[in-house]
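ok trying again, last paste got cut off:
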Amino acid sequence: MISLLRIETSRLCLRWLGADDAAFIQRLVNDPDWLRFIGDRQVAGRNDARRYIEEGPSAMYRQYGFGLNRVALKRSDRPIGICGLLRREQLPVADLGYAFLPEFRHRGYGYEAACAVLQHAFTELGQERIAAIVSADNEASLRLLDRLGFRYQRPFETEAESAATDLYITERDSWDGRRR
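nice, full thing came through this time. structure:
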């Protein structure tokens, strides 16, 4: 798959996911925190991971022109996580999604990638508002959303049988390109 998106930051490179990312996706979606906060995507092997990429992110790229992006270290091109926009039937606007491998958490990569995705969404994709849904007990994500300028809206029901989930929103008019 030829990537139609490439966003670079000082430390990261974001691009669309492809079938060659199956091993990375298999590891990421089976991480205990992914399973706890996002849910089981039934990705037991590489073929399942390729299916997940094709039916999820790749389908969104085709339909909306955006989706979850592979986040890699710029110097080595080592994949460390995903960050991008999703489109859900239950929401009137796109929502920000992200997840990182355990060894790359708490290093500012989520913030850096999310800033790049939001900047792209507001300037290149013309989005006016971006949502985020998060488990109420996911403290790290709650801190990240606050730092990015998202504000609590209301409880949000998801298809997952996980803990309580809340909806947050940020708007183009209040986005300053780089938060604090």
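cool. The chain is about 30% helix and 25% strand. The mean pLDDT is 91.
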